[in-house]
Amino acid sequence: MMKNYPLLDVRVSTPRLELRAATDDLLDQLAESVRAGKTHAEPAPYDDPMSFYETDPDLRVAKWLRAIWRRRGSVDPDAWRLYFVVMAAGRPVGEQSLTGVDFATLGTVTTFSWLSTDERGRGLGREMRSAILHLAFAGLGAKEAASDAFVDNGGSNGISRALGYEPNGFDWATRRGEPALLNRWRLTRAGWERHRRDDIQLHNVEACHALLPLA
Q: What is the pLDDT along the chain (215 residues), one digit of tens a residue?
C-alpha cells in the first residue's frame, strides 16, 4: 500500500485475476515481459506511436515506463488515466488501463490492454475487460465506454462484441507508419447492465471519488 497516494491502492478482483494499480514495483516486475517482447502479436495491434515497436529491449522498457509515469501523474478535468497491472495466479501477466476524457461532463471512458503472449487463448483478455468495465460503470458511474481495434484484430473485436458493445463506425490510424482501418465500438450503460456480473469486487474505489475529477 502507498498511504500518501491512495489511487495506487485501487484494485479490481474477479475469480480468475486481479487488476492492481500500477505501482513502480509491479511495473518493474511486468517490465520483464516487455523486455522479452511478449507484448507482440500478429497482426500488430497497436497504433502509432507505441513503445512496443522499439526494437532495442532496454529502450523499449524505458519508453514504456516513461509513458506510464507521464500519464499516471497527470490528473486533469479534461483527461485522466488509471493504469493497472493484471495479476493471474500471483504473477503479472499484462496491463489494463482506463481513460476518462471530459468525464465530469460526458461520463465516457476508453480502455486499453495487452496480455503476455504466453497467457493468451485462455479467456483472460475478456476477463480483464469485464473487470475494468465494472470499475468504470459500477465504481465510477460511467455512462458509456468506447473501444477501438484494427479490423484484423480478431481478439479485441471479439471481446467487444461478446461484452455487448455496438459497432460505432470506422476510423483510420497509422500502424508502423502505414495507414490501417479501425473498428470503433460503443458500450452504453444499458448494454453493460445486460452483461453485468455479480462476482467482480472493487477495492479502495473511494480513492477515485476523492482524487479524480468525476463530477
A: 677 899 999 999 999 999 999 999 999 999 999 999 999 999 999 999 999 999 999 999 999 999 999 999 899 999 999 999 999 999 999 999 999 999 999 999 999 999 999 999 999 999 999 999 999 999 999 999 999 999 999 999 999 999 999 999 999 999 999 999 999 999 999 999 999 999 999 999 999 999 999 98
Domain 11-211, CATH number (from 2.60.120.340, 3.40.630.30, 3.40.50.300, 3.10.450.50) = 3.40.630.30
Quote the cell numbers at residue 80: 485522466
Longest dimension (CA), the chain: 45
Cβ–Cβ under 8 Å, residues 40 and 52? yes
What is the end-to-end Cα distance of the chain in Å, rounded?
26
Query: Which three three-digit cell numbers place residue 133?
Result: 468495465
Question: Can you tell me the distance from the alpha carbon of 33 to that of 169, in angstroms, rounded to the nearest whole number?
Answer: 33
Alpha helices (runs of H) in the chain, residue ranges in sequence order: 24-35, 57-72, 103-106, 124-134, 154-162, 189-194, 206-211
Q: Kindly report whether the global pTM for this prediction surpasses the value 0.85.
A: yes
